[in-house]
Amino acid sequence: MLCDYLEKNTFRASTVNSGREMWRCLEQKQIDLIVLDLMLPGEDGLEICRNLRARRSIPVIILSALDEETDRIVGLEMGADDYLTKPFNPRELLVRIKAVLRRTRAVPAAGNATENTSRLRFAGWTLDLNSRHLHSPQGVLVPLSGGEFRLLHTLLEHAGRSLNRDQLLELTQGREAGVFDRSVDVLIGRLRRHLGENAKAPAIIQTERGIGYRLAVPVEKI
User: Fold this and answer.
1) Residue 115, class by beta-carbon neighbours within 10 Å (0-12 exposed, 13-18 middle, 19+ buried)?
2) pLDDT per residue over 60-85, tens digit each?
3) C-alpha–C-alpha distance, residues 117 and 113, integer Å
4) Residues 50, 127, 139, 123, Cα dihedral to 10°
5) Structural domains of the chain, ranges and CATH numbers in brackets
6) DSSP string computed for the chain
7) 174 forms bridges with which residues in the sheet?
């Protein structure tokens, strides 16, 4: 039913019944976004989301009958870009799909990058603005989710400046997305793990108590 609805609204959609079928579909087609149910046979949706994030940067919207805040936080921890609970209006899903695709395809809203800037270097790390990948000081590729990329890019473009949660949500996701209250904190935690930060004494992304977060290292545009 969802496939039919999306196709009536100008999208091309494919349906699969398991994680195994999904991987086959990804090998055969160019997929721009995945709507992922958590209740699946075999590998469950959260595990699929985790594996997807480790290998691909495709945006993911999770569908679930679980509506507790902890369930939503876990979905974000696994790398989901949005989370919609059942029952839901198909039009709401359509709006969220368009919002996620718009954020994914748009130039990130940090605003200070020039047309000649394709990479940002900081503390030995490099963020590629074209591939949306992060490279470690050793040259190891670190895949990022759409939310992780936008948040890191925003922090890099505002290096040295403290940004509160509302500012970060506005710059990276926009109010229309209906994001979760703790989404910024969850994504900051994921970025710190990617960067190998000590959670108790982070050197790159610092917590400004009572304010928000600040990128505390110099950034070079290359």
Assistant:
1) exposed
2) 999 888 766 677 777 777 778 888 88
3) 6
4) -110
5) 2-105 (3.40.50.2300), 119-221 (1.10.10.10)
6) -HHHHHHHTT------SSHHHHHHHHHHS--S-EEEES--SSS-HHHHHHHHHHH----EEEEES---HHHHHHHHHTT-SEEEESS--HHHHHHHHHHHHHHHHSPPTT----TT--EEEETTEEEETTTTEEE-TT--EE---HHHHHHHHHHHHTTT--EEHHHHHHHHT-GGG---TTHHHHHHHHHHHHTT--TTS-SSEEEETTTEEEE-S--EE-
7) none
Find tokens 């990130």 and name the residue: 108
Tokens 């579909």 belong to: 25
d(CA 145, CA 151): 10
Query: Which is nearest to 195 in space by CA: 147, 142, 132?
Result: 142
pLDDT, tens digit (0-9, with 9 covering 90-100), for 85-100: 888 899 999 998 988 8
Q: Which residues of the chain have pLDDT under 50?
A: 107-115, 175-180
As a whole number of angstroms, the distance between CA 17 and CA 73 comes to: 25
Which residues does 166 contact at the CB level (< 8 Å), separation at least 6? none
Model-level pTM? 0.60
CA distance 44 to 62: 12
Structure tokens at 201: 């004494």
Structure tokens at 67: 């509506």
